[in-house]
Every structure is written in structure tokens, then in C-alpha cells.
Amino acid sequence: MHHFAYRNGIMHCEDVSLETIARDLGTPTYVYSDATLRRHYNVLAEAFHGLDCLIAYAVKANSNLGVIATLASMGAGADVVSGGEMLKAIKAGVPANRIVFSGVAKTEEEMALGLQHGIFQFNVESMPELQRLSRVATSLGLRAPVAFRVNPHVEAGGHAHISTGSAEHKFGIAWHEADIFFDEASKLPGIDPVGVAVHIGSQIMRVEPLKEAWEKVVALVHRLRARGFSISRVDFGGGLGVPYKDGDNPDSPSAYAQQARDVIGQLDVKLVVEPGRLIAGNAGVLISKVEYVKERDGRTFVILDAGMNDLIRPALYGAWHEVLPVKTPALGAPRRAVDLVGPICESTDRFAKDRPMPPLKEGDLVAFMTAGAYGATLSSQYNSRPLVAEALVRGDACEVVRRRPTFDEMTALERAPDWISSG
Ligand SMILES: *Cc1c(COP(=O)(O)O)cnc(C)c1O
């Protein structure tokens, strides 16, 4: 369910035509739908209604301040994985006491930042991290609320590169070693051990493997409580998938929430969930323009002005994005298998191979669908291409929420060394 649809033959985001946006802002440009973001947040909030639950939006999915601010205004918390994300969340209006700090490599500076702001929780993933966090907290005269992210040894990710819950992955502490961590934490002066967390991967289509992981968390809470630890929080992570192509049919947020209720039962804990893709995924598209159509060796290359630096998911994960013409093709126009490629000097700069597409010619616009999550956040300036613009649409209003940098801005942090001119 999203708010991108054809009207009078032109794809719109809510009430705004993508042609208009391309004309006004240029291409490539990411376009996000306010109504879609809100809908996804509301569906989850309603599904968890009545439960003591913090919905901590996983900022790395889409960290545009406009997107975070939209969700913050609805009451969302934030799951962050760096000091930069933490500061963006705070700047966008997320109260610090709704921020969860995840990630395997928190620096001392990041820990101090989180402690000084009074964030909700640090999800700790190793013994040296725990000891460092206690040291930093003690030096500030503070205590860090900590959940241990356990690695439940459950496989569930949609793709090998986005699974995180098995023994070979760097994430989490071994779930059977949690006792050792709680024993150690209870001796450390700067630590308040309050919870158990889990996150086993992304683009997970079925809630069943999540259940296995969550049940391990609940069993652990029972065991730790029996040993005298007062565990007041569980964090079930993120990971529920979204449809990218026809036939993708992920389990619903309500099935996800129902399963969470069932697994928690009478545990009497505060629940944290960390959805990213589920909220932002199909709330965004990337508009791109056809630069050239090149016929060679029996292949047709449709060369776009968007590249893997703007949307890296196909190159990085072999991900599939639907690519639709912004203008509805003429009725009965034949489809032809083409390769959709970008301008980057890399062979992996290919969005689709042998993709049946309606006729496309120079200057035509296309939209990469479901590009709202892990799109703009994973973009770079490779090939010295400026970051693309991002726009947020609400009804008939369209606001630029990140403008394209100028050439001077793109190069402002760089300089030639003094010895070039002085020599
Ligand atoms: C990436 C991440 C998420 C969000 O995953 P989605 O698949 O986007 O829902 C949640 N929690 C942690 C710890 C993450 O690293």
C-alpha cells in the first residue's frame, strides 16, 4: 500500500506529478510520500496498541531529516547506529529518551554523546564494548541503560548480505553466553542491565523465523529473572520485509504484532521494535531520465542518468526494483527486453538485465519503485556526481528536503596541498 499511482497517464506521488518534480528539481531525484510514511507508522502503532511498546524507527533506512521529523511528529522513537544518526534524530525532534543506540563499534565519543543526551538504551554487542561503556559512563557520573543484543543463531534474512542472526555474523553476543554478560554487567558501576535485544536480518518475508528468535529472547528473560536479574525490556529488532515485485507477499505488520503479543504473553516487559524498511521502503521512488538508448551486439542498453552511486541496492545485493515509465505507455505498445544501466564506470552499474520494458527514448522519465529505504542513505558521490535531491510530498505540496549540492559545495571540503602552489 502506497501513494504512487498513474493519473491521466502520468505517475503521481499523492497529488503531485513526477513530471513536474523532474522539471522543477531535475533528475535523478528521490521523492517520498508523507501519507505513505504516516500510514505505515499508523498501521504498526495500531497493531501494537495497548502494549507498552516503543516503535524505534531504524534511521539508517532513510535518514533524511524530513522523513525522521515526520515520524517523530507521530511519536516514533529512533534506532540509531552512529553518533551522526543520533544527532539527526534529536535534531528532527525525536526525544532522546526514545532513542536506542545499536551497532558493533560504538566509539567513546558516541557513548558519551548518548549518555549526555540521556538516550533510552544502548544495545551492547561485546564484552569490551560493555567495559568501555561502563568506563565512559562512570567518568561522566552517569549510568548506561543496557540491553544485550543476542545472536540467536537463527537464519532469516531475505539475502545472505542482509542476514545477521547466525554464528558466522559479527552481530550480537552468543545467546547462550548471556548469563556471563549479565553477571559482568551487574558488577560494573556504570551499567544498568535492563533488557535483551535481537535483530536477525532485513527483508524477512515470514514472521515464523522471527518467532524462533523472539522465543529464545523470552526464554532468556525467564532464566535471567530466575537468577535475580530484573529484566524490564525486550527489543525484537526490525526486519519485516516489503514487496518489491509482483508476487512478493510478506507477512503483514498485524501478523508481526500479533506474534509479538503471543510470544511476550504475560512477561510484563516494555517492548521495543526497530522497523526501517517497513516504514520507508515503498514510501519513496527515485526518478531518473533516459540519457541514451544504445544498441550493440544485439543488446539494447537504456542508459539512465541515475547510477549505482544513487541507488546501490541492485549492485550491492542483486536487489530487484520495479522500474516504471513515468508516462503510461501507449496502449498495446510492445515490450522489449533491455538492460537498464547507469553512467558509472563499473560493470555492476546495472539496475536490470533483459528487463521487458515499454518503448523508452532519450528524455523519457522512469521511476524506480520502493526506493525509500536503503536508497538515498547508501548513496555516494562516486564519479564526482553530486548527491541527488530529495523531495517530500504531502497532498499537493512538494518540498525539497535535501537539495542537490552545487559543484562548489561538493568540493568544499577538499583542497590541493600547499606544496603544489608554493613549489
Ligand atoms: C538495520 C537495522 C534495523 C532495521 O532493519 P529493517 O529491515 O530496515 O527493518 C533494525 N535494527 C537494527 C539493529 C538494524 O541494524
Please, could you describe this protein's structure?
The chain is an alpha/beta fold and 423 residues long. The protein folds into two domains: 4-31 and 282-411, Lyase, Ornithine Decarboxylase, Chain A, domain 1 (Beta Barrel); 103-273, TIM Barrel. The protein contains 13 helices and 21 strands. The chain has helices at 18-25, 34-47, 65-73, 83-91, 108-117, 127-139, 178-187, 208-226, 253-264, 277-280, 313-317, 407-411, 418-422; strands spanning 4-7, 10-13, 16-17, 29-33, 53-58, 77-80, 99-101, 121-124, 144-151, 173-174, 191-197, 233-235, 270-273, 284-296, 299-304, 323-325, 336-341, 350-357, 365-368, 389-394, 397-402. Strands 4, 14, 15, 16, 17, 18, 19, 20 and 21 form a nine-stranded mixed sheet that branches. An eight-stranded parallel β-barrel has the order 5-6-7-8-9-11-12-13, surrounded by five helices. The protein has a three-stranded antiparallel sheet with strand order 1-2-3. Strand 11, helix 8 (208-226) and strand 12 form a beta-alpha-beta unit. Helix 5 (108-117) packs across helix 6 and helix 8 runs parallel beside helix 9 (253-264). The longest helix is centred in the middle third of the chain and has 19 residues, at 208-226. The termini are far apart. The mean pLDDT is 96. Bound molecules: pyridoxal-5'-phosphate. Pyridoxal-5'-phosphate binds at residues 58, 60-61, 79, 102, 199, 202, 237-239, 274-278, 373.
